[in-house]
Design a protein that fits this description.
Length: 316
């Protein structure tokens, strides 16, 4: 059994650790609120872009475009060159947040024959570099403090590779926060966009609004009532670029919020465990202290008895 000095040292060490975990919990809480506010500020713009793209594609469903999966070219017959944008954190102490993203990205990379990884966050970058994965080292971004400027720079880089046919498909692997207690890893295809998904969404929204009376004959007369200047193709190109930028920014902010939420939960769990350890150590300390006091009293009584016996012998 440890002595009182050792137990006191352990209690002090745990109390110092609790100060750190509580401080990190408060910092993550503030960062989480900031990330949620960023996400709420950009959602109207992002959803507005989705509606515009859906509206155009619902009226021009047969239009072929580089950014959509209904294009017809030779690339459909070749081996797909896939790019994976993987968003992790820059540091740990966030529970299983980084592990879940890396595990999903590793599975996707193993399934792709020709792949390239574009990593956001130092944790994922170090993991895949250490395993000799094909990581694009020019794509070097931090997960800390996501911004729209960073999303635009990322979009320019990825879209340029896609246009030069160095990539046939681009996916984003990030973490979405369902609620304060649950998160899940999302895998979304960023390029090419799926035409039928946008059309399906448009039809559902129109049906909900009671405006679903579109028919083939009306679509054939679309030029009479639907005007896009300078052309649907050019407008889509601009909208898609902004859509990709908005999606990447949303993924960065969502991942940042998920990371801070995971760190809050991890720090709260660490604090709760520390409190439980302190309670156990306090009880152990009291037992050891009481045992020491009892031992001292026993030794005093024993010494007093010995002195009395010695005096009696001297009197005789």
């Amino acid at each position: 059994m440890a002595n009182t000095k050792e137990i006191q040292n352990r209690i002090k060490s745990i109390q110092d650790t609790m100060k750190i975990t509580r401080a990190m919990y408060m910092m993550s809480s503030m960062k989480l609120r900031k990330a949620r506010q960023k996400l709420a500020d950009t959602e109207p713009y992002f959803y507005g872009l989705q509606e515009q793209i859906s509206e155009i594609l619902s009226h021009f469903p047969d239009m072929e475009h580089l950014y959509f999966d209904n294009r017809i070219d030779d690339r459909a017959e070749t081996v797909k060159k896939k790019g994976f944008i993987v968003i992790t954190g820059d540091k740990g102490m966030a529970g299983a947040y980084n592990h879940n993203v890396i595990k999903t990205a590793q599975t996707l990379a193993n399934e792709a024959e020709d792949r390239r990884l574009y990593l956001v966050g130092e944790t994922g970058r170090q993991y895949f570099l250490s395993r000799k994965e094909p990581v694009d080292t020019a794509f070097h971004f931090s997960a800390h403090n996501p911004s729209m400027h960073r999303a635009r720079v990322m979009t320019e880089y990825i879209v340029d590779l896609y246009q030069r046919e160095e990539l046939d498909e681009v996916y984003v692997v990030y973490t979405r926060m369902i609620n304060s207690m649950k998160e899940e890893v999302e895998v979304q295809q960023l390029l090419p966009l799926k035409t039928h998904e946008f059309i399906k969404k448009e039809l559902i929204e129109n049906a909900q609004k009671g405006e679903g009376n579109y028919n083939r004959e009306a679509l054939d007369r679309v030029d009479d009532w639907f005007l896009i200047y300078p052309s649907p193709r050019q407008v889509l190109e601009k909208l898609v670029y902004n859509y990709v930028t908005g999606f990447l920014y949303g993924a960065l902010v969502e991942s940042s919020a998920s990371e801070e939420n995971a760190r809050m939960m991890a720090m709260q769990s660490a604090t709760d465990n520390a409190e439980a350890m302190l309670k156990s150590l306090s009880m152990e300390y009291n037992r050891v202290r009481q045992a020491a006091i009892t031992q001292e009293i026993t030794e005093v009584i024993g010494g007093a008895k010995a002195l009395r016996k010695k005096k009696k012998k001297q009197v005789r």
